[in-house]
Amino acid sequence: MKKIILNKGKEHSLKRFHPWVFSGAISERSDKVAEGDVAEVFSAEGEYLATGYCSQGSIAVRALSFEQTEINLAFWEKKIGDSYSLRQQIGLAENNATNVFRLVNAEGDGVSGLIIDFYNGTAVVQAHSFFIHDNLELISKALQSVLGTKLKAMYDKSAETLPGENLQGFKNLEGLSNYVFGKTEDSEVLENGNCFHVNWEEGQKTGFFIDQRENRNLLGKYAQGKKVLNTFCYSGGFSVYALKSGASWVVSVDASRKAIEWTDQNILLNGFDEKMHQSIVGDVQEYMKTAADNFDIIILDPPAFAKHQKAKHNAVQGYRRLNESAIRKIKTGGLIFTFSCSQAVDRPLFESTVMAAAIDARRKVRILHHLSQPADHPTNIFHPEGQYLKGLVLQVS
Fold this sequence. Notes:
The protein is an alpha/beta fold and 397 residues long. The chain has three domains: 2-65, Archaeosine Trna-guanine Transglycosylase, Chain: A, domain 4 (Roll); 73-187, RNA methyltransferase domain (HRMD) like (Transcription Regulator spoIIAA), CATH 3.30.750.80; 209-396, Rossmann fold. Helix content is 27%, strand content 27%. Strands 16-15-14-17-18-20-19 form a seven-stranded mixed sheet, sandwiched between helices. The chain has a six-stranded mixed sheet with strand order 2-6-5-4-1-3. It is globular, with a radius of gyration of 22 Å. The mean pLDDT is 93.
């Protein structure tokens, strides 16, 4: 196995179980250490620290274990088995009302670079590194071993998550979006008793934003008899929950025509029609300029405005403008569900940005709820960077 030695004093983060080793911390490497190689990491004094895989860029090693181990089928069975046990513990793995959940959440489950979402028998996998992608056959076997007959298929959707600058020379480029095991045609899932068609082949991320499940459920508790505006609606998750809870009128807005088609499909799937719901293809900010001012609830769930630190300033300005528009527009006493999924924008910055928007809008705003990602998207306490989803429920008077 390849060997990496750190500079003196750079071992502390690994000793605190943070899974990343930055390139500047490395003193020596074995000859010919390449992208995806497994290596053992040692301190300058020769103490073993971790086993992980190497990658290009500022994060040079991603730790998979803090004990010396072989990365083989038994390793993957243990990792996936532990992850599945947690989903059983939180009541998602065998739930008649919900058959869609995140099975493996990267660093949150001790496997940096691996996302697995479970859709009613289909495991949709996204590899964020070439090492993970090279191990998909083993991961598939481990999934079959752990899930047994519950697993009907495994779909690889890594084309959009592998490091783009290296794709040209990737030996398995043609297999980046394909079934690794089995094949399924039925894409209908249940979430808290609500029905959704999920297109994991064409949709964003793995096909559905599973991380908003509990926040959609919370919206349902407030939506009865209310007029609801769902912006950046994607496939209409919040809209379906609002209608199921008795909302009097729901408007769904998204710039993607395909997203609006999926929204309309999900509205009909749950038994609702155009008398209760309107879909609009369009830019959200432009729509907000002319939207009615009688909405009781507005949902702001934009895509990540900042995917890296360099984009943070522009992202903050985007969140500020968006929230100011909603605060100005919302009916007196109304609620705003506002979110950021940008890792570069942490919770204090997001909340101060929303506060600045409230100041600009010159309205009184109270925070009712602080929202985050659900339990099947766990955060490793030693890796706070994994807590990416931030949200607030605001009451505006």
